């Protein structure tokens, strides 16, 4: 029931890794997120070195996103023009992120840096998600619901030059805004091993003002190419991709994404967002605990006498 991971230099229970990949793939298909923001911390909890967890997680995200994107493609819910702009920005960001990742690795600080970034990032994102989810639940239960939340691109985005039409997304904006968004997500993809969908989806909705029908599918479309670029960079530069681990995650992720797409059509979105917010905050708290609590086995270095 165990397999040896060459780069991670450890044996793992293959069934546990496949189930972990399946659970994250399920979230990918349901929410339009790559799932790396959960895969990477869970692999770290399991004992995988953070640098290997980041690189291998990006590989798994690529596969599960292909599965989910195809399902949305069949429904006509992917904006190829918008996706192309996001991908271009993402590839640029991935290159910048790899420079930072390699620099931290050369300093010997990559593992600690990844943990600290995750604690801060997931803590902030989780709190914002929890606030939004609780507000949505209260609004849904209110006998006199308030006016629907207005969605449209913010004024500074409307003022950017070179506007063009994104017909499927229902937008007439400058491609500079989605390009910049793609760059940010590309950097995070390389450093954190995330697909960036849990940033991309709300940003496309509330910053760019995209039509909700094409957001999730377009997010998954760009994740495929950006995480693919991140995997290539990790494999050739930092050499931290563990192919055995990535394949095990991929097996579960592809199947889980298909189930997630179907479940998204049936379950209450308010309760799902609440559950995801609590999960994100739980992971952040667990990572913080690991950074601050003294381990059971303490080692010291001393000069031999």
From TrEMBL:
- Where does this protein chiefly localize? membrane
Keyword Transmembrane assigned to the entry: answer is yes
What sections of the protein cross the membrane? Answer: 12-38, 44-73, 85-104, 116-140, 171-199, 205-233, 240-260, 272-289
Keyword annotations for this protein, in alphabetical order, are: Cell membrane, Membrane, Transmembrane, Transmembrane helix
Keyword Transmembrane helix in annotation = yes
State the membrane topology.
Multi-pass membrane protein
Q: What is one cellular component GO term in this UniProt entry?
A: plasma membrane
Q: What is this protein called?
A: Probable membrane transporter protein
Organism of derivation:
Polymorphobacter multimanifer
């Amino acid at each position: 029931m165990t397999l040896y991971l060459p780069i991670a230099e450890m044996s793992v229970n293959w069934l546990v890794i496949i189930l972990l990949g399946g659970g994250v793939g399920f979230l990918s298909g349901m929410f339009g997120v790559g799932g790396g923001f959960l895969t990477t911390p869970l692999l770290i909890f399991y004992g995988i070195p953070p640098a290997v967890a980041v690189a291998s997680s990006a590989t798994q995200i690529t596969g599960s996103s292909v599965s989910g994107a195809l399902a949305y493609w069949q429904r006509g819910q992917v904006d190829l023009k918008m996706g192309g702009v996001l991908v271009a920005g993402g590839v640029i960001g991935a290159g910048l992120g790899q420079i930072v990742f390699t620099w931290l690795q050369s300093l010997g600080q990559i593992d600690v840096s990844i943990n600290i970034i995750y604690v801060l990032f997931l803590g902030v994102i989780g709190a914002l998600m929890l606030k939004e989810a609780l507000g949505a639940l209260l609004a849904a239960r209110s006998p006199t619901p308030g006016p629907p939340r207005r969605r449209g691109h913010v004024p500074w985005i409307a003022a950017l030059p070179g506007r063009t039409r994104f017909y499927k997304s229902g937008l007439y904006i400058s491609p500079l805004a989605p390009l910049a968004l793609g760059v940010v997500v590309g950097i995070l993809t390389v450093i954190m091993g995330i697909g960036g969908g849990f940033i991309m989806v709300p940003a496309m909705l509330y910053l760019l003002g995209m039509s909700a029908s094409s957001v999730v599918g377009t997010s998954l479309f760009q994740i495929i190419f950006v995480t693919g670029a991140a995997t290539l960079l990790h494999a050739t530069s930092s050499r931290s991709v563990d192919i055995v681990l990535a394949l095990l995650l991929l097996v579960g992720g592809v199947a889980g994404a298909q189930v997630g797409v179907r479940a998204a059509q049936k379950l209450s979105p308010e309760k799902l967002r609440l559950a995801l917010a609590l999960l994100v905050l739980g992971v952040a708290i667990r990572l913080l605990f690991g950074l601050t609590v003294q381990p059971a086995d303490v080692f010291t270095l001393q000069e031999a006498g």
